[in-house]
Amino acid sequence: QLVESGGGSVQPGGSLRLSCIGSGFSFDDSDMGWFRQGPGKEREGVAGIWAARGRNQTNYGDSVKSRFIVSQDNDKRTMYLQMNSLKPEDSGMYYCAADPGRVIPWWHHQGYRHWGQGTQVTVS
């Protein structure tokens, strides 16, 4: 199970931090990702992280590089997405995803087995 929180409404240029708490699977070894979907748009990979066995491998979508930071705290079984310099085009439903195996490429959303219900982000 994955549960997101932290969404909301913010003005352009503002910041938000999303959280995703996982349970019921091997959180430490899983490939984790953040995805978003705006109205009438396809689901888009925002960021991915693989923090298994001391690694901290992160990936970002081109539209969010240098603005968003993904991180993971295995002790808290929580993944975070720090979003800075938000733009109206960042608006959408944000989902966290996890898979016990490796998802290659990280943005291949069909490769993730577990999904949260989503948290809405509105930038206007």
Structural descriptors:
mainly beta, single chain, 124 residues
Overall mean pLDDT stands at 94
Through-space gap between termini: 31 Å
| Binned strand content | over 45%
The amount of helix comes to under 10%
Report on the structure:
This protein is mainly beta and 124 residues long. Helix content is 0%, strand content 48%. It has strands at 2-5, 8-10, 16-22, 31-37, 44-50, 57-60, 68-73, 78-83, 92-99, 114-115, 119-123. Strand 4 (31-37) and strand 5 (44-50) form a beta hairpin. The N and C termini lie far apart (31 Å). The relative contact order is 0.32. The mean pLDDT is 94.
How would you concisely characterize the structure shown here?
With 124 residues, the chain is mostly beta strands.
Task: Give a topology summary.
Layout: E1 2-5, E2 8-10, E3 16-22, E4 31-37, E5 44-50, E6 57-60, E7 68-73, E8 78-83, E9 92-99, E10 114-115, E11 119-123
Parallel strand pairs: 2-11
Antiparallel strand pairs: 1-3, 3-8, 4-5, 4-9, 5-6, 7-8, 9-10, 9-11
